[in-house]
Every structure is written in structure tokens, then in C-alpha cells.
Design goal:
Strand order of the largest sheet: 11-10-9-8-7-6-5-12-13-14
Largest sheet: 10 strands, mixed
Order of helices and strands: EEEEHEHEHEHEHHEHEHHEHEEE
Helix content: 25-40%
Strand content: 15-25%
Mean pLDDT: 94
Number of helices: 10
Distance between the termini: 39 Å
Number of strands: 14
Structural class: alpha/beta
Shape: globular
């Protein structure tokens, strides 16, 4: 049995439990007190999942906050827009406090590369100060040296992998990336941090899905999420050659035989549509048109600016 932190609340009229490792939101099979709560992840995995469209709420289940665009790697499939300006330390603190006071169940700090921020532990601590579960998504390069300081303030870490070995992974992320990501994932696991592997599914990488799952188990990860490639940001130019269609992506992931105890999931473009992202310029963005593009909606000035567009969350 693995007990770890989840976030529980009732949004609209629906009781929910959010998993910071998988980004999945579940409807619990029993009463769960609101707030940050310790639950058996095997039990949570048995509860049905629910999508944003199915719940009568204007509040996003979870958001991604990218407070910086800087990164030590130059991955061609990156979703970020490197032309955006970065907010300063004071603005990052303001955004963290605003997000913490919201009713959002889960916050993920991404980038850019979030581990380049010296203030990352402090920002995560602020985000988790109310009821939300918090995570960060990283390329893993700096994770080994920062795992100990992150462990007390992060509920899950997602480490990006583009292959199960140095040759395949480093092809996309640069020499030495695989070795550093593996060391980082092992360091986080040794500190008791739940680790989820993230793997972007592309035509060039999809045939290695089983091997990535095997790697996740070897590293001690709780699971692996295969992400359908989105034609957004720096990776838009790869879409014509690398995009895997929905049916094929499902077939590939369903063919994976998860090692004992490992949970494997596919995040489709359908699930990514409408997802809320706070980018480094302090604006609220949403994935639109089947997650084939991302659009800024408004500056993040108050909690109301997080409200979903009318086409998202069901409204009564």
C-alpha cells in the first residue's frame, strides 16, 4: 500500500479527489474530508475518473503555471512560447498567493524548466498552503541536486522522458539528458516523492512505449503518462511528421503491459482541450480547437480570472 497526498473537495455538487501525479480527478467511493488528505493510491485508482465537462463548476480542476520560459534544454517538441516575457519575483509571489486562495484542486509548476528557479520550494509551499495538491514537471537535469529540498513541499514530480535509453532520449533533448533525468528520478523516489514519467507520443517514439513503462517501473515511479503531441508552441512545426492520431495512440497505450504496480495512462488531445495554463507573462491561457492551439484570455489579476470559458465546465 502506498499512501500519499491528494486534494479533495466538492465542486458544484460533486465530491472530487485530484491526483497530483497523474493529473486525473476521481469521484470517491466513500466520504473523503476536504483538503489535502492522505489516501491509498491503489484505492484512488479504483475510483471512477471525471472530466471537467461533466461537473457543474466554473472552477478548473487543475492548472499548469509556467512562471518562466528559460530552460537549459532546447527540445524541438516543447509546448512553451519562448518569446514571452517573464514575470519578476514579486509578481511570481503574487500569482502563487492568488492561486493558493482559489478553489483549484491541483497546481503544477512547469516551464521552461522550473528547477532553474531558486524560489521554487517557496512557491510550492505557498501553493499548498490551502488545500491544493502541488507538483512540478521537469526535464530532470537538476532534480538530483534539488530533490532533498523539494521533498517536503511537493506532492509529486513529473519527469519528461522521450525514450527508455540514452540514444533515444538524448536524440530529442541533448547529450547527457537521459543520465541526468534517471539520476533525478531515482533521487526523488529515494526522498519519498511520487514520480510520474511523462512521455510525448510521437511517430518517432511511439514504438518504445512498452520500454518506457518498463523504465518507469525500474526507477520506482508510480506511473507513466503518454501525452499525445500537441501542435502548440515550439513543437508546432513537428506536427505534420510526428502527430499520432487518437485511435492509434489509444491502440499503442492499450498494448502496453504495465509492470506490477505501475499505472499507465494516455492523455489525449480531447482531454487537453480547455486546459488552463498560466504562462510567464501572467496571462490566463486555454487550449482550444481540440488542443491544436492555445489562446490568451485575460491577465490573472483576481481569482475570478481563473473562471473557465462558457464552453467549459457545465453551468447551471
Amino acid at each position: 500500500m502506498t499512501v500519499r497526498i491528494f486534494s479533495a473537495a466538492t465542486l458544484g455538487e460533486t465530491p472530487l479527489v485530484y491526483d497530483p501525479a497523474t493529473e486525473l480527478t476521481h469521484t470517491p467511493g466513500r466520504h473523503v474530508p476536504a483538503g489535502r488528505v492522505l489516501l491509498d493510491d491503489a484505492e484512488v485508482d479504483q475510483w471512477p475518473t471525471v472530466t471537467q465537462h461533466q461537473v457543474a463548476t466554473h472552477v478548473p480542476f487543475n492548472i499548469c503555471w509556467s512562471p518562466l520560459v528559460r530552460c537549459n534544454l532546447q527540445c524541438p517538441q516543447c509546448l512553451d512560447d519562448k518569446t514571452l516575457p517573464e514575470s519578476g519575483a514579486t509578481e511570481r509571489q503574487r500569482i502563487a498567493s492568488l492561486l493558493a486562495a482559489s478553489n483549484v484542486l491541483g497546481h503544477d509548476i512547469s516551464g521552461g524548466e522550473p528547477l532553474l528557479l531558486r524560489s521554487l520550494p517557496q512557491l510550492l509551499e505557498v501553493l499548498a498552503s490551502q488545500r491544493a495538491a502541488v507538483s512540478c514537471t521537469t526535464n530532470g537535469w537538476h532534480l538530483q541536486r534539488r530533490a532533498e529540498e523539494l521533498a517536503p513541499v511537493v506532492d509529486a514530480v513529473r519527469v519528461s522522458f522521450d525514450g527508455p535509453d540514452a540514444a533515444s532520449h538524448d536524440h530529442w533533448r541533448g547529450k547527457g539528458s537521459f543520465e541526468r533525468a534517471v539520476a533525478g528520478a531515482r533521487a526523488a523516489v529515494s526522498q519519498g516523492v511520487p514520480v510520474q514519467l511523462h512521455a510525448v507520443m510521437m511517430q518517432s517514439t511511439a514504438h518504445r512505449a512498452q520500454s518506457v513503462a518498463d523504465l518507469a517501473a525500474d526507477l520506482g515511479a508510480v506511473g507513466v503518462t503518454f501525452l499525445q503531441m500537441l501542435p502548440i508552441g515550439g513543437g508546432a512545426h513537428l506536427a505534420a511528421a510526428e502527430l499520432v492520431e487518437d485511435a492509434e495512440a489509444r491502440r499503442i497505450v492499450e498494448s502496453v503491459q504495465p509492470p506490477h504496480g505501475l499505472r499507465v495512462r494516455l492523455r489525449t488531445r480531447e482531454l487537453a482541450e480547455g486546459f488552463t495554463v498560466i504562462r510567464a507573462d501572467g496571462q490566463v491561457y486555454h487550449n482550444v480547437r481540440g488542443a491544436t492551439d492555445i489562446e490568451a484570455t485575460r491577465p490573472l489579476l483576481t481569482g475570478a480570472d481563473l473562471d473557465l470559458p462558457l464552453t467549459e465546465g457545465v453551468r447551471r
